[in-house]
């Protein structure tokens, strides 16, 4: 088969790879994208977007629950098959739509698992590709813990495409995925066991707010077990028996491994092209360049401390567009990155953490505000609204925030704008925002 030559080959057709591919193509480079599975990658097919479609019903139910006795009289029930149909109406169009977009832009596409050869070229099925530079954007996949009965474990991929939700499910790991799937399944009527091996899930978030969130999940009926590890999963009639280190056991309809994700690198044969990896992903320098100077990496597959999120992968794709088309290549500098765990109560984190601020009391002030009596939250009867705001003592600018409320996703984005524009209450006071809204609360947060 004849070698096909490109300026750039991007391996992985997810949000990160696509951002780079479109950007580099727009700069006039000949670009190819290789995808082995679903065009569009994790986020729109089996991540953020389908999850958030299911979450729309959860949020609506939560809003209605909060207003019981305050003007509403019944709580809507989730019709799982209908909700799943709504999700599929969105996701089934993604791969063809994404591929069609690339074809329309005249970006070359190859479908199959990419694998490097020792001479630095790439094999995809029957195709042989050569390129001046390469971008690896192969993402992460669910990690399956090595327990007795690991073959019975499912993942978020299966959860987000279930025809029917079992009456009882078990989630192994209370990270982002575990907590979000617990919220969805619980709201849809399943008995949920959320099992976490340490005493401190969601370590990147404020500990008090994580505790508030777990208490809320418990109050909603989720069986949250901390310091507990599942040791065995075994078939029991048409269900599964789960056993833990503390000697407890129960029968459940399905068990999902929500114990983290791992970089997708096995197919690539990176060792053949001298690209170093760790268990966290591909090693890169400040230019997202791997240990092979012609191979770059971005997004979830990279071993970097930034959270593994779609906007981060897209930002890195745009950064590489710039770096690979100009002579000037300063190290990547990330803006403030907001993180949100979605649910009836949303947990959000932005900028300087409360832990960092507490460790440097001369530099930062942390204000812990119960928002439940504030007008914005009283109006919707939000039962848990709380924010911790971190202010720089010298500049009086807001530099960080941790939020738990049904409105956290919106508030954290306003605060992102505030932080990026170096604002405190004085600067916010110079703006006029619609009243009464979350934005009009901003000036009270110092
Ligand atoms: C359940 C879930 C919910 C999430 N929710 C959110 C959220 O609400 N907000 C948010 O910001 N992020 C969320 N994320 C994370 C988000 O999906 C990822 O950060 C994002 O998809 C990373 O993009 P990427 O391009 O780096 O990788 P991916 O989207 O994973 O794309 C990588 C692509 O590479 C392909 N590939 C792998 N190996 C090869 C190979 N050898 N050859 C060819 N192709 C290959 C894969 O098939 C895949 O399509 C969620 C993730 C999950 C699992
Ligand atoms: N809302 C969002 O933005 C969103 C949603 C989902 C995923 N994501 C992204 O995907 C990444 C992966 O999410 P995740 O939830 O899969 O991973 P995670 O690392 O956030 O959480 C997994 C948790 O499972 C625990 N764990 C590990 N082994 C275990 C075991 N044997 N038993 C019980 N617990 C165990 C880990 O200590 C960890 O706390 C996130 O870091 C995030 O970047 C983002």
UniProtKB/TrEMBL annotation:
Pfam families documented for this protein: Pyr_redox_2, Pyr_redox_dim
Keyword Flavoprotein: yes
Alphabetical list of SUPFAM superfamilies matching this protein: FAD/NAD(P)-binding domain, FAD/NAD-linked reductases, dimerisation (C-terminal) domain
Family: Belongs to the class-I pyridine nucleotide-disulfide oxidoreductase family.
Enzyme class: oxidoreductase
Protein's UniProt keywords contain 4Fe-4S: no
Transmembrane segments: none
GO molecular function: oxidoreductase activity
Protein EC: 1.-.-.-
UniProt domain Pyridine nucleotide-disulphide oxidoreductase dimerisation: residue ranges: 337-440
Source organism of this protein record: Levilactobacillus fuyuanensis
Keywords: FAD, Flavoprotein, Oxidoreductase
Protein name: Dihydrolipoyl dehydrogenase family protein
Residue span(s) of domain FAD/NAD(P)-binding: 6-317
Cofactor: FAD
